[in-house]
Amino acid sequence: MADKNRIVPAAAQSIAVAFPQATHGMVNTGAGIQVGTNAGTINLNINCPTPELMQGLMSMFAAQPAPQKVSHKLEWASLNQERYCLFVLENEDYNYGVFSIAKSCALRKYTDSEHKERYFDLTPAVVSELTSMPCIFAKRNMHFGYTEASHPALLGRITDMRAQGETIKVCFSGFQGISQQLLNQNIGLLGMVHASLRNELDEEHWSIKDCNLIDAMARLHVDIE
Question: pTM of the predicted model, to two decimals?
Fold first, then answer.
């Protein structure tokens, strides 16, 4: 049986992708945080080892190729190095930089009680903290404990969050596409909960992990361009 905690290098070959024709919540960081909208294009870099993975990413995140390349290297390096957000969706899609997750799946499992109390009430101060955390955006594994090689996940950050009835609407910016199976193979390194046959990527939820995601991705040779 393969060791699910082993570190597996990721192939690096980046291209640019755009999310057009939609309105997005955006955040500027500097002396403070400014939330606004963008009716233009959101760009991201993709680190995909196979054409199949690239096609899966384009489908999952409603993306299409863009001629320009946008660098997120410095922005990624500036994010929180103590904890990160993990989003795993099942029936919902990451459409044009926006998605929703049920409150019943938000910070209920796989998250320390301290973080549940601190981050569940989405005040402006809490949202400001959340936008400073790196994120993994994923879809539920195709099988228990593992997924297909063409199944993509995305590294990035939150740009805005707001409660809407029984759901939470999340606006995000994608930086780098990776293979989700790489995450499955390095569950321990990423601080995710796992057992012999299942892991945290098998269940729809939002959790906050006490783990340096920036360092973990560097150890996996995933370079944010």
Answer: 0.74
The 10s digit of each residue's pLDDT in 36-46 is 444 444 454 55
Q: Which of 7, 85, 23, 71 is nearest to 43 (CA)?
A: 71
Cα 203 from Cα 187, distance rounded (Å): 14
pLDDT band per the 50, 70, 90 thresholds, residue 131: very high
- How far is 87 from 199, CA to CA, in rounded Å? 14
What is the DSSP secondary-structure string of the chain?
Answer: ---TT--------EEEEEE-SS-EEEEEESSSEEEEEE-S-EEEEEE-SSHHHHHHHHHHTT-EE-SS----HHHHHTS-SS-EEEEEESS---BTTEEEEEGGGBSSSSS-HHHHHHHSS--HHHHHHHTTSEEEEEE--SBTTB--TT-EEEEEEEEEEEEETTEEEEEEEEEEEEEHHHHHTTTTTTT--B-SS-BGGGS-EEEEE-S-HHHHHHHTT----
Residue 128 phi/psi, 5-degree rounding, is: -60, -45
